[in-house]
Amino acid sequence: MERNSHIKGRGIRIAAAIAIAGTWTANAQNPIIHDQFTADPTARVFEGKMYLYPSHDIPSPVERLEEWFCMADYHVFSSFDLTDWEDHGVILTQDSIPWVEPGSYAMWAPDCVSKNGKYYFYFPAAPKGHERGFSIGVAVADSPAGPFTPLDEPIEGVRGIDPCVLIDDDGRSYIFWSGMGLSGAPLADDMTHLAGTPVKIEGLPEGFKEGPFAFKREGRYYLTFPWVREKEGTETLAYAMSDLPLGPYEFKGIIMDESPTGCWTNHHSIVDYEGDWYLFYHHNDYSPEMDKRRSARIDRISFNADGSINKVTPTLRGVGVTDARRHIELDRYSAISPDGAAIDFINPDNKFEGWKTILKDKDAWVRYDRVDFGSKPAGNIGMRVRSRGGASLKVAAGDPDRVIATVTIPATGEEWMEISSPVEYSPAGIADLTVTLCYGSSAEIDWAAFDL
Ligand code: FUB
Q: Smallest Cα–Cα separation from 237: which of 221, 258, 217?
């Protein structure tokens, strides 16, 4: 389903309105994938491009999983700019793997690494038969987007979930997984067998649950993981450091606090892409009523000189620059006025249609940072809006007095409409946008875009 397919065939047009065609999707925001759930996001850089290997939460087709995790397959996504993501489609399904119980819907958090020109995709799943618990399998490909061929058997000696593989500078590989604590073991050169006895990783705090992600930076090993720090609490993201891949590790602290809205799990990966570090994590953005249907997000992460990690505050704005000439989803704001403004779903019955910004009171505002106007001045601003009794919006750049356009919305009742207004001043390059309600009882904004 296209993110903005709801636009087609709906809305009324006035004389000043222009037809805004197409199904543009400005993806430089959180969550990053807009047409399906994407949990447990493992990001890896292959051949200079960012690849994303998430779990694929789905509404459960079976009653026993209606309130639990339910996943039948994996997709892989890729992006050069962390803004536009290509969905390469399904790379593996539960029914295509010889050792996996058909209909188990337990394709939990995966990982993918590359060695000697091959791509190894690691995934937990429920083995055939009545055995409880998870095994971890491997599927192999010649390219990061597949096709992946699963091995006939899971990795011998590994029982658990959430595999993560670290390839060290000397070429040695290690696999970590969770289940009764955190285990790790060296991997054989073929990347599909253990090359040593698993060890329990020492030094992690009580409350470690799952989801390890290991990486090496400036000669030191990081083990990062979801951590429930309080009894009855939900998952934070935390980390420990060591001079050896399999530890012992020293606990260092929190990377991200618990979800403010109560999503119980968090699951992440941390990657360096073109010199900047990014935290991929998840939140139940499209499923606020049920936290087992999650969506991948990205925010920047940074390190101090001593190697410690600065805490990350989750944002809606995410990373990346939004092209001024594509849909700017103001509801993924950088800042919003504390009073008189709100965000809500456009269609509560289909949350993948996204959100709207509601400016209810005079002077309420929303700010959206990093919009790229390029070098050519914009001539008009289009907006998809509605306002029961009519309203006027001021669109400004950076300084709130630097007015880009004044947008007058006629009384639309309940209908959405696309309107176009002339631009008075066009910023050059990258600017932050602020939209303020100047008069009117209330205005709702789906998106804004210049020169569409
Ligand atoms: O996605 C299912 C499970 O939820 C993962 O394996 C855990 O890490 C948690 O995110």
A: 258
CATH number for the domain harbouring residue 188:
2.115.10.20
332 lies in the same domain as 378? yes
Domain at 427, CATH number: 2.60.120.260
Q: Which residue's alpha carbon is nearest to atom 3 within ligand 1?
A: 108
Residue 279 in tokens: 């935290």
Judge whether 40 counts as a catalytic residue. Answer: yes
- 306-362 confidence digits (pLDDT tens): 999 999 999 999 998 999 999 999 999 999 999 999 999 999 999 999 999 999 999
Q: Which of 234, 251, 161, 156 is nearest to 194 (CA)?
A: 156
109 lines ligand 1 (CB under 6 A): yes
Q: 290 with 371, same domain?
A: no
Residues in the chain: 452
Residue with the two structure tokens 């990346």: 320
In the numeric block, which tokens belong to residue 27? 């993806």
* Kind and range of the H or E run holding 366: strand 365-372
Is residue 158 domain-shared with residue 262, that is, in the same domain?
Answer: yes
